[in-house]
Amino acid sequence: MNLILSKLLTRANDLAEVEPLIALFLGAALLAVFLKMLLQNPSASAADGKNSSLLWTLYKNFTRLTWALLLVALLAGTVSVLRSYLHRMLNDFQRTHGRITEANYNAVQTIWGAEQVQNELNVDIYHNEETTERIESEDPSKPALLRKKTQHVSVTGNPFVAARHEITLHQNPRKKGSALYGGYETDCRFSWRLRNPSDENQKCTLTFPLPAASAMYDGLAATLNGKDVLPQIQIKDASLVLEHEVRSNETLDFRVAFKSRGLSYWYFQVREAREIRDFNLTMTLTDLAKAKLNYPDGCMTPTEISPTKDGQGCVLTYRLDHALTDKGMGIALPQLPQPGETTRAVLNQTDNAWLLVFAVLALSLTLANVRHAVLLTILFSTATAFGYGLLADFSDLLFGFWLTAALVLLPLFGVLAKLLLRTAPAAGKGLAGQFLLFGVVYPCLAGLDADRQSLYLNLGAAGFLAFTAWLLLKNLAAEKIPAPPAIAANPAV
Questions:
Q1: What distance in Å separates the CA atoms of residue 151 and residue 330, rounded to the nearest whole number?
Q2: pLDDT in tens, 141-153
Q3: What are the residue ranges spanned by the domains of the chain?
Q4: DSSP per position, 53-99
Q5: pLDDT digit string (tens) for 353-370?
Q6: Which of 26, 158, 313, 392 could make an SS bond with 286 (beta carbons 3.0 to 4.6 A apart)?
């Protein structure tokens, strides 16, 4: 018994911390049921008290107290059990619809390709100088040792004259498990004009870092001054490395092209601290409109954004000249609509919606003096929870949320609202309206418009308070109306 009470109190405390307004309404409903059961038939109890002993009066009061506590415990247990059902239903739906996990994301990276970060070409123009190092011996009688060594001497100066890069990116989402992950395919073409800043012949090492170590690269091409140099290129540390001899003040035209694919974002950055001259990067996003653009962290905004010819995408242009920056240039793919996203968004709000339905049923039926108020509260709240379960079950069978809501959710809640009108006419049409408001309208609005969830909750709370105040005023007015006088019996009859 203590364990059950401890769990109920723990859950009540958690609810009060997360949703204090709903906890307040639920507590008010349970308190109303408790007081109603405890103080029912006060006139009859007073009449019994005149004709009974103190022991009998204590027994009757203890019986009412025990009965009131049992009914409140029954309602609290119903709340706990049905909330557990709703949470399990939601977890099962999320597990099979759009559940993004790190393990699946890593698996997609392994199969498809990882995020791509393209670094700028590294150019090292140098020559080797042979120097002689003299090492004196500790023994004066022995001659000094002479050691020759080759020293790598890099030429100072910026070899970059101009850069023209063209990236075409097409979205290609990948599915793993029950979720979609943002994948893309790229067609990359990089071009640089380089110049040997030295007046002497030098050696040159061109190092082009690949954007991802484990990615797939297709259609790889590399040319230097129009000649194919791919056979001379070596692959070292996930980079393409080309050794070349350059004459004094010679200009080089180096180009690299390939097709690849990756996930989430594509990023280009000039990490080397140097002056960026006559730089132009054009990124064509074939199926990503301007309204959906998003940039990775540390990325600058484009110089120009223009739509594609078909209007389905946009073209990002970055132009820099005589610039110093280490900021990147690129695009982050938008979040994809996951399978069952609309249904899941509505189901996420069903816990709060169901608690509001339970509170308005328990409080309204009690204040309206409806017979079997506790039993009706349990029956209608249970039917509400099962209705949400049917929404999750039929969402796939009926091709999404909207058709399921039209064919299952609305008819079910409409029938329940009519049954409320028939079983509790004393509460009026307002109770049926509150039932539909919290059972259908609130979870749909709060789920589909996440930015205004608190607004819909506050509006619903205002309606709850207004309806409760109307019931209280109605009961107080009924109590003030005097009962009709009893008709005296005719002694002559």
A1: 39
A2: 777 776 777 788 8
A3: 11-97+340-479, 115-135+143-332
A4: -HHHHHHHHHHHHHHHHHHHHHHHHHHHHHHHHHHHHHHHHHHHSS-
A5: 999 999 999 999 999 889
A6: 313
